[in-house]
Sequence to fold (567 residues):
Amino acid sequence: MTKQLAGHLLVDCLLAQGTTHAFGVPGESYLAVLDGLHARREQIQFITCRQEGGAAFMAEAHGKLTGRPGVCMVTRGPGATNASIGVHTAFQDSTPMVLLVGDVASDCRDREAFQEVDYLSFFGPSTKGFAKRVERIDDADRIPEYVARAFATAMNGRPGPVVLVLPEDMLTRMTDAQPLPRLEAVQAWSDPGALRTLREMLLKSERPLIIAGGGGWTPQSAQALQRFAENWKLPVGNAFRFQDTFDNHHPLYAGDVGIGLNPKLAARVKASDLIIAVGPRLGEMTTGNYTLLEAPRPKQKLVHIHASAEELNRVFQADLAINATMNAAARSLEVLTAPVSVPWDAWTASANQDYLANLEPQKLPGDVDMPAIVGLLQKHLPQDAVLTNGAGNFASWVHRFFRHHGLAKGYKTQLAPTVGAMGYGVPAGIAAAITTGRTAFTIAGDGDFLMNGQELATAVQHGAKSIVVLLNNGMYGTIRMHQEREYPQHESGSSLNNPDFAALARAYGYAGVRITRTAEFEAELLAALARNEGTLIEVMLDPEVITTRGTLSAITQNAMAASARAL
Fold:
């Protein structure tokens, strides 16, 4: 067999696993891999990013969209540590991802060589929040084995990130090893006995509720979940930042269970006598800081269906725990025989009515009506548009008022970090545009945008177009809100002195405009959809408009009144 550079073999192994894009920042530690990417540039596209955190977010977004591991390539030390934010996001969001780290040469190892890091300690499973697995490839002939295992680990069970460390000298060795065949995620099927128990629990219930979300969903599994809900007339809530798991337009939809939760839905979760959690790990945000469902033993009966056996009964002791992947679980649920009638018809109908009522906004001050702007997004964005955001109060506008059509209609349309990472939305939107070719829309805050706004340069370089609506209120809004609740009128560190964002966008090669009134938005949105390049629309938002339900002054006044009562 013909020998080739190990770096070229690594690229061949990625191609064998179906990789079409790799996102990264080049480094001298993996030049042989970059050369392999050059040699196979017609088969795999290397997206050159401007910071490793942005690259890792793009890879994570790619993994969310495709269900296959997003691939990120970075150099040692600072490159890897910069990328760690994307690895942490992939872990908490249950997203398949592979991070490839070029490393110091083997003869320099363990001497604190230039930029050397112990990646097993930094990313390893012992951190309980970074990678599912960390491995170092010292033998070029074993590259196919390690890459295949990385993809299998990233996809199987609870999806997540894997880190492969690539010593520089290993990548320049010659090898005649060959890639291993493409791997698919292993499907874990529901136990038939558990399904019979679930049916019995449903038949005894009066106020059941599904909470759906987490990783591993496909259009087919979402369609099967919808049929299960329809057969049994069950209300369905989507877990935090998985709002496209179930169609928001469906009459069985109850709303999203997360931050800024509809108070009536929060009460409904607590009043339910049977929670069927299909997919989510039931983290802090979905459970309202473990108050909607109390850990370790909820007051409600709990059926927890999850792809990872290790996740089941880890935080919540379920009445029925079912280890199944989403495709298998949903297909098992849809054939569960339903009775002719159920006693919770009114419960289900009122859940949807509460959701629809929550779409009616409270009156807030200022010249910009954010619910109306979200209404224009709903009107003009294509049904398959991908909506992305980072972390901050700005995201609550689309979370509350935008209605996703859902995976059951064929497309994943929400990319949002359950980990709460700022700076995610801009690179995720660019990755969505590159990966899918569909309309990519990002909502950002002024603080959030400057975490990774430099990736607009990446979009321009690679011909990608995204539309960014940037809400500028001159502050880290979420932090300021919490400061006023806890320490009213003691602002510290949350005010921002911002650049001219529209001019900054134009400098990168985007169109950049600024609006100050609601009436100006629709024309700018239509222009953004029509033009070939990306667009940033800066919206000057009154600092008083801090949440979808109230003002900053009201929060301050309530906090001061509570403080006075406590004296």
